[in-house]
Amino acid sequence: MEAPKVPRTNKPQNRRKVKTGCLTCNSAILSQFVQLTDRKRKRRVKCDEARPSCERCVSTGRVCDGYGIWDSVSKAPGKLKYQRVSALSDTIVLSQAQGVSGKPCSIGFEYFRKYTVNKLPGVFESGFWNSLVFQACVEDPAVLHAATALGAAHKNEEAISLVEYNQAIQHLRRHLNRLDNDALRVSLITCMIFACLELLRGGFKTGHAHLSNGMQLLREIQTRQGITSLDGPIVLRTHPQSVEDALVEVFSRLNIQAMLFGQVSNHHIFVSERAPDGPKYNIPSNFQSHTEARKYLDSLINGVYNLTQQGRNILHSQKQVSDQLYRWKEELDIALIRWLQAFNSSQKGLLANLTPRKMYRTPLLRLYHTMATIMAATSLRGTDEMIFDSYNPNFEALLRQATELWDVMHNAYLAFKKLTGYVMPAICFTADMGFIPPLYYTVIKCRQPNLRRMAIKILMSAPHREGAWSGPLVARMARHIMAREEEDMYKDLDIMPTCQPGHSELPVVPHSSRFSDIKVSLPERAGGKAILFCNRYLGRGEWIADNQEFDVSLEDSVSSRIWDSDATAYFARLWNGQN
């Protein structure tokens, strides 16, 4: 379907200098809400401000970076008042409430209501997707049009999605010259929807930019409320009590997913009522729900990631690891042990009244805990990649947990298919945790050949995308890393992909062949090239780079791609939120 021509908006009648315009004509997306008018031009040209892509950029063959949700405006709406986040007892038919019933765009919202909001949060409840978004749709047309655009994109209705995206931006502009909390809330709700929309459509860098800016705005709001400081951590409450709490939860979840693939995040997250003094992880003796257990684990994974980043920075600067970092590592090691103890002691209550959707949560959380334990133990390793060989039993446990999750999903799918004749939607996408990051981590850090190949085999069978990452794309990158490290050392051996290590007499990948530092740079959008940066440490402060480009296509995330049909279907049954 041909996308409609997007009308120009606010076309100037004179040659006055303006501060608005797309990000290509102006600067990169702003990092702070209060910096809306402080922009420097990338090019000395005048932006025509067509939405969602500047026509000047398109007509000249340039890539338009878009506008994000951060451009300045002239009008301000009335204040929005939200109370405590609560579940909706009945589904609100917003297409009628907002006057879009019967219009082509209504199919986008109906799809969002029926499918998208169930799929995006994965297997966990989300106060944001299941309640707050619908409340905001009733109150503000910017959120309604953004939700409709996301639902239309999810249904693969690009023309409708484009029109609704444009409408959402037009309505959102009213809020963006205000600095009060109500305007920030609407902007953040729409920002999260836009982040998911961009990731779904393949706008990887723009999606992550929305995420990063949203995290900064959340810290600003919590600073105003006296919960934290501008240089302090973001506080994730165990039991959400406000709009801001629901926003912190959904942003922190997507942030965890992004940073596990090396997208830099400088935000510390703690589960508490207010920011603690220093790294403190107060794990309770038991968990009342899987969601509570997940919040504490998210905080620990965030801490492990930030500690690893500091260790990496010290490695490249050739400085000594401080006692403070060793104490932080010890705090994380202890907290991870306590988390597992609390999780095990809570199983009787957690496993009561299980629904098909809830049964995935226990193996998924164990999978992430195993990964976090390995990451924490090796976070300050320096250049010693041989240390990972001593954690082969942990990697074996991780793969067993992944196959256990696979079996649970398979059995649930077979029963569900027999009962309902389930048919998958066009695109498989989730904005929450799945098993792609732990499997990717296994491939790049576990050099045991059987385990490594098993992780790749599972990745290849995943016909969905978690944020910007699809199983097939990650598997291609993983295979390249494995091939470059192993070279031809196993070429004459029949290495089977299993969850059990092979014969102990197999040759070990030498330290000189192992990559110490691996990063991925995503393209601006699908159809571009991702760059895999792999670095080996040669000693005495010297590194050698081994980089590789990979084509990134949305086909990697569409379920119509030809994979094993049973695997495709039962994975889709999970990622589309069917109970």
From TrEMBL:
Residues 41-67 form the Zn(2)-C6 fungal-type domain. The keyword Transcription regulation applies. InterPro entries: Fun_TF, Transcr_Regulatory_Proteins, Zn2-C6_fun-type_DNA-bd_sf, Zn2Cys6_DnaBD. One of its GO terms (molecular function) is zinc ion binding. Keywords: DNA-binding, Metal-binding, Nucleus, Transcription, Transcription regulation, Zinc. Pfam families: Fungal_trans_2 (PF11951), Zn_clus (PF00172). CDD domains: GAL4. This is Zn(2)-C6 fungal-type domain-containing protein. It comes from Trichoderma lentiforme.
